[in-house]
């Protein structure tokens, strides 16, 4: 069974990873894949949307005769990440109360 992940949560994962360091698309996809099952065809539209919203910027860097496009979190993206984390913490606490209640009310 797989638990479906929302677009907002996927955005938060990407922003959290990019807060640690800049990544090019494939490497970023691999980092996200370590946590959830996601394909490159899912990730690139997410990256385009985050860039369009001002959460990310990009820059190109040569690698073995080709350019890699790197993604960098912006100040707007960092603010958005903080908002997603705030919402996630409240959501997680509510779920934990149900999942881990001991001898609760019926």
UniProtKB/TrEMBL annotation:
Transmembrane regions listed in the UniProt entry: none
Span of domain Transcription regulator PadR N-terminal: 14-83
Entry-linked SUPFAM superfamilies: Winged helix' DNA-binding domain
Stored Pfam families: PadR
Superkingdom: Bacteria
Annotated Gene3D superfamilies: Winged helix-like DNA-binding domain superfamily/Winged helix DNA-binding domain (1.10.10.10)
Protein name per the record: PadR family transcriptional regulator
Protein's organism: Limosilactobacillus urinaemulieris
């Amino acid at each position: 069974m797989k638990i479906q992940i929302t677009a907002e949560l996927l955005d938060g994962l990407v922003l959290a990873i990019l807060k640690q360091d800049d990544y090019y698309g494939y490497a970023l996809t691999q980092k996200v894949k370590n946590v959830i099952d996601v394909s490159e065809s899912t990730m690139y539209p997410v990256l385009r949307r985050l860039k369009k919203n001002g959460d990310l910027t990009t820059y190109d860097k040569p690698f073995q005769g080709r350019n890699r496009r790197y993604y960098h979190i912006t100040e707007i993206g960092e603010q958005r990440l903080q908002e997603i984390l705030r919402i996630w913490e409240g959501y997680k606490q509510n779920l934990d109360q149900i999942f881990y209640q001991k001898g609760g009310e019926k």
